[in-house]
Design a protein that fits this description.
4-stranded antiparallel β-sheet; 8 helices; disordered N terminus
């Protein structure tokens, strides 16, 4: 399951963990950050633990992100089962936690990531509760799709531009499938266009990335923006014929299953 977290919700830290890293022992300041987090965790106070997190905390799609400390407190057992709790509680700060350059501080090769302000940015672990929830949600999505689209490993995105609804799914061969409809059509209808064998491509060092699909002389690129401001669009759809850009539309809406 760990290998699948590269696309898990488009988190910056999860994106970074797909690359080779150079880890270093913690200096005193970073040691104290981890020590404070571990102390809170050992106390078992969910509310106090939730103050150590940066939100939203991404979960594996289609599980919704955790957006507030109150929500993390409510969904605590979904994320932290006994195994993950034991990993954190029994971790040796000198041996199991490492500083990885600008990426942050990681526990055991990326099970958990902390920034240099002492905030947890990502958890690359899935409890049995989350696995079961993910399975149920994916099955629900399948029921709301045209029969030609029901086979996939996990959903990646379902977004809308001013004219199109675009869905991308990861397949079991680690390739990606693109399907699109005009925005007034239901995903229960046959897609206007389906493209297979797409690839995930990093775009810069901050987590932004895109998916690329070929259709003869046409190229479709779906950009996903992780970094940005409150006014930055979530992504862009670009279509090229050879090297000429024919279309560029911002994604303006995240569709609900």
């Amino acid at each position: 399951m760990m290998a699948r977290f590269r696309i898990f919700c488009f988190s910056v830290v999860l994106f970074l963990s797909a690359f080779s890293t150079t880890a270093y022992s913690l200096d005193q300041e970073n040691y104290e950050l981890v020590k404070d987090f571990k102390a809170a965790f050992l106390k078992g106070d969910k509310r106090e633990i939730s103050t150590f997190f940066k939100f939203p905390l991404k979960r594996e799609k289609p599980i919704r992100s955790i957006r507030t400390s109150e929500e993390l407190t409510e969904r605590f057992e979904e994320v932290f089962d006994q195994h993950l709790s034991d990993i954190i509680n029994s971790s040796d700060i000198h041996e199991d936690w490492d500083a990885v350059g600008w990426r942050g501080i990681m526990l055991q090769n990326g099970v958990l990531w902390m920034d240099y302000d002492g905030k947890i940015m990502a958890i690359n672990y899935q409890s049995e509760i989350e696995k079961a929830l993910q399975h149920r949600l994916i099955n629900t999505e399948r029921k709301n799709l045209h029969k030609s689209l029901t086979v996939f490993e996990q959903p990646v995105l379902d977004w809308q531009t001013k004219r199109f609804r675009v869905r991308i799914d990861e397949m079991d061969d680690h390739k990606y499938r693109y399907a699109s409809w005009s925005k007034d059509k239901s995903p229960l209808t046959k897609p206007d266009l389906v493209l297979s064998d797409g690839a995930w491509v990093p775009d810069g060092s901050g987590g932004n990335h895109y998916y690329i699909f070929k259709n003869g002389t046409y190229t479709y690129k779906v950009y996903v923006y992780v970094l940005g401001t409150d006014t930055t669009q979530i992504g862009v759809l670009d279509v090229y014929k050879n090297d000429k850009k024919l279309l560029s539309e911002d994604f303006i809406k995240i569709m609900k299953p």
